[in-house]
Amino acid sequence: MTEPAAAAEPAAPQYPLRAVVLAGGLNFEREVSLSSGTQVWEELTRAGLDAEVRDADADLLPGLAASPADAVFIALHGATGEDGALRAVLDLAGVPYVGSPAAACRLAWDKPAAKSVVRSAGVTTPDWVALPHSTFRELGAGAVLDLIVARLGLPLMVKPASGGSALGAQKVTRVEDLPAAMVSCFAYGDTVMVERFVDGVELALSVVDLGEGPEALPAVEIVPESGVFDYTSRYTPGLTEYHAPARVSDEVARAAAELAVRVHRVLGLADLSRTDAIVSPDGTVHFLEVNVSPGLTETSMFPMAVEAAGHSLGDVLARLLARRASTDR
After folding, report:
1. Distance, CA of 286 to CA of 49 (rounded, Å)
2. Which of 115, 186, 260, 317 has its CA 20 to 30 A from that of 131?
3. Which residues neighbour 133 within 8 Å (Cβ) at sequence distance 6 or greater?
4. Would residue 29 show up in a list of annotated catalytic residues for this protein?
5. What is the pLDDT of residue 54?
6. How many C-alpha atoms does 294 have within 13 Å on its Cβ side?
7. Across the 329 residues of the chain, what is the mean pLDDT of every consecutive 10-residue run?
8. In this structure, what are the phi and psi dihedrals at residue 104, rounded to the nearest 5 degrees?
9. In the prediction, which pLDDT does 278 show?
10. Is 295 an active-site residue?
11. Do 40 and 116 belong to one domain?
12. Which of 87, 289, 293, 314 is catalytic?
């Protein structure tokens, strides 16, 4: 299992680093983002940084102009922090930030597009179809869904084509449940991705780049009581067990680490990411999706991976900020 190289720590600024943590946003994942932002602020403060939390609202740009930050840490989840738009504005304003550039975020945010790119790079991923609401409506739901089941079989995983926190994601085992699952997903976006369900060991694969290139942290194994790591399983205490490092063979652990780093590189990501994957019974690691702004709460998987690697979360976050504060994007 590869781990971040300790020798690559960037030179510390000659003054207390001033960081702004962006958290909140106006979307379905606001509360999770606020929790991540609070945790990041606490970790950075303990690490000796001058940090404050700001929301992504109309006061953000004037505030950054009046009191510039050495670097910004984006703890925003959902479209606000992950679709690339905010990062493009920060680029226009010349504000350095931790995380992937806008173009890479746009690609990762579109799950079907990201799957196409990583599959072209030789990464294994379950078969899927992306279905806009207009197609679902105009061609007739019944006929379209019959074709999906004939091609992909059952069970299926139905999820919004963009978004995080598993909002709207559902496992469908019966044909008669598929229309309702589709309608439920359309509440979160105009396009739904229907994916062949792969049964196996679910892993969260965190990647961090502290200056020597992207390195995989120990995999975190996810064991939801319900069998599906949906929104309820993620955020209801006691409904999911986590094991860090994952209880997999050394061979599978190496394959998972290589997959996560490959995805990070192929999609053009930077600084940190978290890839979600499934290990099927034959030991194959299947890519599901990637997160450019992984959760950073006390119960999130990125901090678990950092701890399993023997690192301090505050130190890792501070080093990422210090690197961006001294590097032009």
Report:
1. 39
2. 260
3. 186, 190, 191, 192
4. yes
5. 96
6. 26
7. 43 69 85 92 95 95 95 92 94 97 97 98 97 84 90 96 78 94 90 96 97 97 84 77 97 98 98 98 97 90 97 96 80
8. -65, -35
9. 97
10. yes
11. no
12. 289
Same domain, 82 and 119: no
- Binding site for Mg(2+): residue ranges? 276, 289, 291
Q: Tell me: do 203 and 267 sit in the same domain.
A: yes
- Residue 165 lies inside a defined structural domain of this protein: yes
The predicted structure's pLDDT at residue 328: 53
CATH code: domain of residue 227: 3.30.470.20
Rounded to whole angstroms, the Cα distance separating 87 from 292 reads 12
Which residues, 6+ apart, have CB-to-CB distance to 91 below 8 Å?
101, 102, 329
Whole-angstrom distance, CA of residue 177 vs CA of residue 190: 20
Annotated catalytic, 291? yes
Same structural domain for residues 44 and 3?
yes
277 and 318 belong to one structural domain: no
The domain that holds 172 is classified in CATH as 3.30.1490.20
Q: Which of 24, 25, 27, 29 is catalytic?
A: 29
Asked if 146 is an active-site residue, the reply is no
Q: For residue 51, give the 3-state DSSP assignment.
A: strand
Q: From the candidates 100, 162, 165, 300, which is the catalytic residue?
A: 165
Q: Is 235 a catalytic residue?
A: yes
Beta carbons within 8 Å of 208's beta carbon, 6+ residues apart = 4, 214, 215, 217, 271, 272, 306, 316, 320
**70: domain range?**
1-99+310-328
Please tell me the distance from the alpha carbon of residue 263 to that of residue 121, in angstroms, as a whole number. 9
**pTM of the full structure:** 0.91
Q: Is residue 302 in a domain? A: no
